[in-house]
Amino acid sequence: MENKDGFPEMPHVSILQHALKIYTNNLYKVFENRYIKGEGCCQDLLNSSETPYDTEHIYVVYENHFSKNFGFMVRFNLPDQNIVCDCKKYSFSSILCCHYLHIFNIHCVPKIPD
Ligand SMILES: [Zn+2]
């Protein structure tokens, strides 16, 4: 969303507020689009493993509720918020993929990890 001067408006979502602080306007727009795409994703929890030190959740994230035949495997590790997605989009650009952002959303992660 933009205000009348073409600058992104301060969003009400904390991870978007953080993105607005650390990215340029153009990168922020890419991030916001991926965030919105992530909102529309759904997930299946494949496995959770717990040790005394951390928990790892393995999800399959689907970009579309209606076509559950194609998804990406996402491994999310707590409490360090280490996350790996099979789509590898993050390796090619500095912006997190929509699958990451979907999992961050369901775990209420308020900031983009360093
Ligand atoms: Zn991904």
Bound molecules: zinc ion
Mean pLDDT: 89
Report the radius of gyration as a whole number of Å: 15 Å
Global morphology? globular
Structure overview:
This protein has 114 residues and is an alpha+beta fold. The protein has one domain (14-106). The chain has helices at residues 14-22, 25-39, 89-92, 98-106; strands at 42-50, 55-62, 71-78, 82-85. Helix 1 runs antiparallel to helix 2 and helix 2 (25-39) crosses helix 4. The protein is globular. The model has no long low-confidence stretch (mean pLDDT 89). The chain binds zinc ion.
SSE topology sketch:
Elements: H1 14-22, H2 25-39, E1 42-50, E2 55-62, E3 71-78, E4 82-85, H3 89-92, H4 98-106
Antiparallel strand pairs: 1-2, 2-3, 3-4
Helix pairs in contact: 1-2, 2-4
Short description:
The protein contains 4 helices and 4 strands.
Output the keywords.
114 residues; alpha+beta; 4-stranded antiparallel sheet; 4 strands; binds zinc ion
